[in-house]
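Human: Here is a favour to ask of a fellow structure person. Comparing notes only helps if you start from a blank page. I am asking you to supply a protein in sequence and C-alpha cell form. Write it directly below this note and I will take it from there.

Assistant:
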Amino acid sequence: MSLLEVKDLRTEFRSGGSVFAAVDGVSFSLAPGETLGIVGESGCGKSVTSLSIMRLVPNPPGRIASGEIRLEGRNLLDLPESEMRAIRGDAVSMIFQEPMTSLNPVQTVGEQIIEAIRLHRAVTAAEARSRALEMLRLVKIPSPETRLDEYPHQLSGGMRQRVMIAMALACDPKILIADEPTTALDVTIQAQILDLLRDLRERTGTAIMLITHDLGVVAEVAHRVIVMYAGRIVEEAPVGPLFADPQHPYTLGLLGSIPRLGSDGDERLQAIEGVVPNPFALPAGCRFSPRCPLADARCKAEQPVLREIAPGHRAACWKAPLDLVLPTAAAAS
C-alpha cells in the first residue's frame, strides 16, 4: 500500500496578467521505507512539487490549482491550515536546500531542534533537550553535547546539513523530503550525507523523497526514479532499469552528461543543447521536442502521454520503446 499518493497535481504561478503551471498533471506514489529520486534540470518543477506536498507554495503568486495529495488516504489539500501545521515536521518533514538560510542564526542548534520537538510532542524542556541530543548523535555530529549550544555560524556546512536532518527526523516522520541535500557540499561530505540518509532509512523505516539534479546521487540511494521536464513527468522507473535501459531522450541526455570512471580522457561529455522552455511559451507538442534530436512532426504537434513501456517503467515519448543510443546534438544536426 502506498504511503503517499499524488494525483494530477497542478501548481500555478501568476506573473503580471499571465499564469503558468510549474507542476502540470503530476502523479506518483511513495511506499513506506522507499527512497524515490526526483531528477531534472533547474526549472523542471522538482522543488515546487515538494513544496506543494508540504503546502508551502507562496500564495501569492502561487497556488495549488487542482489534484490530490493523499497521505495514508487523507487528502492534504482538504485540510485546514491548523491541521496541516500539525502534519509538517511530524508525519512529513523537509530538509531545505540551503541550511544556512533555513536555520535561525540567533538561536542555538539545540533551541531550534527543541522547538520542533515541543511543537509536536507533549514533553518537558528537559525531555526535549535529551531528545535533541539523541538526534545529534544519530546524525553523527561530533561532540554533540557542545554543538547543542552552538549557533549555526559556528558549524561547518556539512554539520549544518546534519542539524537540518536531525531536526527533520526529531519527531519520527513517516516521510522525509530532501531538497538538494548535498548542494554546495564537497564530494567527501556529500558521500557522508548520502550514507547517513541511507542508514537512517534502514534504521527508522522513513520513506524518503530525494529531489536532485544529480543522477549520480540517485544511483547511490534511490529505489525508484522520476525524471521531470518543464513541469511534467517524462519517465519513471526502478533505478536499475532507468540506468540500464532509459526510455526517454531527455533521460538519455542526462545520463550522457555524467562523467564516467575509467574513460581514457578522450571521451567527450554529451551536452543537451538548448534550455528548459519559457513556461509562458511552451511548445505545442512534447515539451522536450525543441531540444530532442529524435523529434519529428508528431512530437512537435502532439503532447505524448505517460505510458507503461515495461512493468513499472513509464515514459512520455512517442518514440518509446527506444532501442538506440541517442545521437549527439552535433550528429543530429
User: Anything to note?
Assistant: The chain has two domains: 4-91+173-261+269-315, 102-172. Residues 326-333 have pLDDT under 50 and may be disordered.
